[in-house]
Amino acid sequence: MLIIFNPAAGRRRAHRLWRVLDIMVNSGLRLELAETRHSGHATILAAAAAKAGQRLVVAAGGDGTIAEVAAGLAGSDTKMGIIPLGTANVLAHELGLPFAPNAVAAALAFGRTRPIWPGLACAGDEQRLFVQMVGAGFDAEVVHNLPLRLKRIFGRTAYVIQGLRESARYDFPMIQLTIDGQSTEAASVIVTKGRYYAGHYTIAPNASPTRPNFTVAMFDRNGPLSALAYGTALTLDQIGRMPGIRLAAAETVDLGPCNTQADGDPAFAEPISIRNAQTPIHVVVN
Questions:
Q1: Is 283 helix (H, G, I), strand (E, B) or coil?
Q2: Which of 84, 184, 232, 249 could be disulfide-bonded to 92 (CB atoms 3.0-4.6 Å)?
Q3: Contacts of 283 (CB under 8 A, 6+ apart)
Q4: How many CB atoms lie within 10 A of CB 77?
């Protein structure tokens, strides 16, 4: 079993990882730990492990690390495990994965899997696999400008702090998008595989990462007050009651030029096309 971990994640997360690994080693499991050195390195490590015939590769981190590992395993028979160590851990909440070290270790040892169907965000010849969502507009602007140090210190609260900063300087332009050939526009857009956003807050109640296709959440009202209202409603799990929000099922989504984020990490700034990945990935669940 290969564990892929970002050593820059911080001491607290490293401590949580070692608690899980200690339990697994004491249970007689053979482990190998690989530390990432730069963005995209987890994909390289996972792809090499899959090519070598590794049966299980574990992403120890948040949704960004999980997406990188998934990209490396795409098209292979290698299963993916998850040790949730991220800020939001959206996919872990989505799949009902355990967080307690004993339960995480037991799930990985047992190895029961469930398929997830990632998406692909494509810009020209480049593509990026994502397991949960692509965001465009205000939330992407926050992600692009969020200092890593602030995120390490404050966790999810860092996004609130950065959101207040961006609300004072972001222009809130309308975003042009095309959903299955139908053109529209919105102030902010979330193309999601699952129900949750920013942890366990519901944004698309009927979505599921275990199926192909997407749900597109479109926020029609722009400006700092609307962004604050949407953010507050989200944390109260009342986003579905807010006016100016549309949900649409989609097979394909094209976004005009704007900053985007994928699984909580900065992504493209040019026009992108969002499609289904060709094959699912089998994820170990509890």
A1: strand
A2: 84
A3: 79, 80, 81, 82, 95, 113, 114, 115, 116
A4: 9
Domain identity same for 156 and 101: no
Considering the domain boundaries, does residue 182 fall inside one?
yes
CA distance 78 to 51: 9
pTM reported for the whole predicted model: 0.93
Q: Is residue 150 part of a domain?
A: yes
Residues 6+ away with beta carbon under 8 Å from 162:
142, 145, 146, 147, 150
Is 257 found in the same domain as 137? yes
**Which tens digit of pLDDT belongs to each residue from 57-73?**
999 999 999 999 999 99
Give how far Cα 237 sits from Cα of 21, 132, 163, Å: 34, 18, 18
3-state secondary structure of 28: coil
Positive or negative torsion for Cα 132, 134, 135, 140? positive
Instruction: Quickly list H helices, 52-147.
Output: 63-73, 90-95, 101-110, 138-145
**Single-letter residue type at 157:** T
Q: What is the sign of the dihedral through the CA atoms of 139, 188, 181 and 272?
A: negative
DSSP H or E run through 46:
helix 41-51
Does the residue 113 lie in any domain?
A: yes
* CATH number, residue 220: 2.60.200.40
